[in-house]
Known about the structure:
The protein is mainly α and 263 residues long. The chain has two domains: 49 residues, Helicase, Ruva Protein, domain 3 (Orthogonal Bundle), CATH 1.10.8; 190 residues, Up-down Bundle (Methane Monooxygenase Hydroxylase, Chain G, domain 1), CATH 1.20.58.760. It is built from ten helices and three strands.
Amino acid sequence: IHTKNVKLSPEFDLDRAARMTPGFSGADLENVVNEAALLAARRGAAAVTIQDFEAAIERVVAGPEKRTRVMNDRERTAVAYHESGHALVAELVPHGDPVAKVSIVPRGRGALGYTMQMPTEDRYLLTREELEDRIAIMLGGRAAEQVVFETISTGASDDIMRASELARQMVMEYGMSEKLGNVRYATQQYQFLSGDTTANASPETLQIIDEEVQRIIEEQYKRAQALLNEHRAALERLTQQLLQTETVDGAAVEQALVESEKA
């Protein structure tokens, strides 16, 4: 529907385009198609290619590239380890969505790097184990910094925010805390960039909620660290490739794991 007013190249694979955008709303898809058309026009092309579509997804999700934001060598290396950490944990946990691309090119929404995962299908139900894997992936960047540099940086701010929010949802909304049982404590929906969720609970229960959120975060952080320590050679290999090429695809992440196991 969203591509009817846009000329697509004969090789454009609509099935592949659909697989690249699971969970996208109609407005998201419209933005992607419009962005792809703009990218094609800038190239002077008469039709949109699948490569235009893929680049448009990145721009919509993470913002445009900001190559004017120049990092020093130390920062660039830290970002490469950070993104490699996300990508490798995503490949190593049982329920991680496949990695499509990893980049250390700064993007418009403040991100100094970017790891893009590509779900294979729309998902409407998620298990506790799947949510825990997502949190481990979110914390994989900071875990890599800790493993390599034995310190942490401000680069994981957004990751921590998203991981904390998901862990709190597990406890307050989904009844996924053994201590608190099958009880929902959230009294309003989480709102994007506005208003905190309130809880209908006693001060003692609120303390347990906080403790459970901290437990989930700490367990998944330690899990991510353990995975990266176990696959340290792959972390080094992928980081060096990122420093050389700035962007790698999912196959490179898999290859880093395969090659490091051979060594």
